[in-house]
């Protein structure tokens, strides 16, 4: 008898990046799976994160076509035999991937996973395989590649959510919002009454602003170059905002606090803001860099810097917490979502690049 393979193949639609800067093109692909430890998720909606756009803008096309997207939400359609926490029909939000085996993962710190790069940016499973290989495309971005009708996730990056909630609103919790809020609430654990400045009030920065209000920080100073985003920062909890194109941020911060600030959250990646984020710190203060860079080894008077990944959040604990805060009206991030049909993905990216849309969310299928 011929060898019987139980590998299933699913026809999916995915937005494929074939050359630097795009455009992404929605194509029919074949996806194998799910394996025993995987869940096949039908994607209902996906946020678009700044990291997706950075990949579009910097992708080396000689590395072959890829599927991006890492803020997916959807319905578990098939569940591998060894998966315990998710059942068929469950509604899920997807977050970042981690290996589950290294020292950091085993001690409850998956954001510090020793295999973080491979698990999230390797465009393959950790064993090197790729479920989209029949189509000559690579996926598994952040353990998902959610610019697609279907993805494969694992228990490490899946968060079960209540069915009564709108998945289009939940989708973007998986990366940017978790990162901004987790930085303030987990990594920095900003105490009540501390002063904080948030550099850049895009989706990540605004999540940090809302979290700073939840923590009781005061003042909460938002710095950006887009007046519309600064208005929103004020509505969401900033006590002061600085338009860095019109005013000098250092002088204004000194006016507001009489000195510097206890915490800075730096989300811009701009070299001047990098310097300023440390220059404006009070002694014993901490700057959190969210753009993948690190600060100098030491700073005077016990100032410190942290390079933070995913707000040190354990998605299965933190995303439910963010959902509860949202339900309670304390984390009203739905104010800056804008919805697009999947077919408008390139427009959504363009609007986000220009800063016209703070957080685009793609509608991919009906709940
Ligand atoms: Zn790990
Ligand atoms: Zn992201």
What do these coordinates show?
The chain is α/β, with parallel strands linked by helices and 367 residues long. It contains 11 helices and 16 strands. The protein has helices at residues 50-58, 103-106, 116-121, 167-170, 176-187, 203-215, 227-236, 249-257, 271-279, 315-327, 345-354; strands at 9-17, 25-32, 38-47, 66-67, 72-79, 91-94, 150-154, 158-161, 196-199, 220-224, 240-243, 261-266, 281-289, 304-307, 337-341, 359-363. Strands 3, 5, 6, 7, 8, 15 and 16 form a 7-stranded mixed beta sheet that branches. Strand 12 (261-266), helix 9 (271-279) and strand 13 (281-289) form a beta-alpha-beta unit. Helix 5 packs parallel to helix 6. The protein is globular, with a radius of gyration of 21 Å. The relative contact order is 0.15. The structure holds zinc ion (ZN) (2 copies). The site of one zinc ion has 9 residues, from helix 2.
Radius of gyration: 21 Å
* N-end to C-end Cα span: 42 Å
User: How much β-strand is present in the residues?
Assistant: 25-35%
User: What's the story with the biggest beta sheet?
Assistant: 7 strands, mixed
Total number of strands: 16
Give the integer mean of the pLDDT values: 96
Give the fraction of residues assigned to helices: 25-40%
Regarding quaternary structure, how should these chains be classified? single chain
Low-confidence stretches: none
Number of helices: 11
Helix-and-strand structural type = alpha/beta
Each distinct ligand: zinc ion
């Amino acid at each position: 008898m011929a060898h019987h393979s139980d590998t299933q193949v699913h026809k999916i639609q995915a937005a494929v990046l074939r050359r630097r800067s795009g455009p992404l093109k929605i194509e029919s692909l074949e996806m194998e799976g799910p394996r025993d430890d995987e869940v096949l998720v039908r994607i209902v909606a996906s946020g678009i994160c700044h990291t997706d756009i950075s990949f579009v803008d910097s992708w080396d096309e000689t590395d072959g076509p890829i599927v991006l997207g890492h803020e997916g939400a959807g319905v578990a359609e098939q569940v591998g035999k060894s998966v315990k926490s998710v059942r068929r029909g469950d509604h899920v939000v997807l977050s970042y991937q981690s290996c589950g085996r290294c020292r950091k993962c085993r001690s409850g710190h998956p954001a510090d996973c020793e295999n973080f790069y491979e698990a999230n940016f390797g465009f393959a499973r950790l064993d090197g395989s790729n479920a989209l290989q029949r189509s000559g495309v690579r996926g598994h971005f952040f353990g998902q590649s959610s610019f697609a009708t279907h993805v494969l996730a694992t228990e490490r990056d899946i968060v079960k959510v209540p069915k009564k909630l709108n998945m289009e609103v939940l989708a973007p919790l998986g990366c940017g919002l978790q990162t901004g809020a987790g930085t303030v609430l987990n990594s920095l654990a900003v105490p009540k009454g501390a002063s904080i400045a948030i550099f850049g009030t895009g989706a990540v920065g605004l999540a940090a602003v809302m979290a700073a209000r939840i923590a009781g920080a005061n003042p909460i100073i938002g710095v950006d170059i887009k007046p519309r985003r600064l208005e929103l920062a004020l509505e969401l909890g900033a006590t002061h905002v600085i338009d860095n194109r019109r005013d000098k941020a250092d002088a204004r911060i000194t006016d507001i606090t009489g000195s510097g600030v206890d915490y800075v959250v730096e989300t811009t990646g701009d070299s001047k803001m990098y310097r300023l984020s440390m220059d404006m710190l009070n002694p014993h203060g901490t700057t959190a860099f969210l753009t993948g860079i690190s600060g100098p080894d030491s700073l005077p008077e016990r100032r410190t810097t942290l390079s933070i990944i995913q707000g040190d959040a354990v998605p299965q604990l933190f995303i439910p917490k963010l959902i509860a805060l949202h339900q309670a009206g304390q984390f009203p991030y739905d104010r800056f979502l804008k919805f697009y049909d999947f077919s408008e993905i390139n427009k959504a990216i363009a609007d986000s690049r220009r800063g016209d849309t703070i957080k685009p969310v793609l509608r991919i299928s009906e709940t």
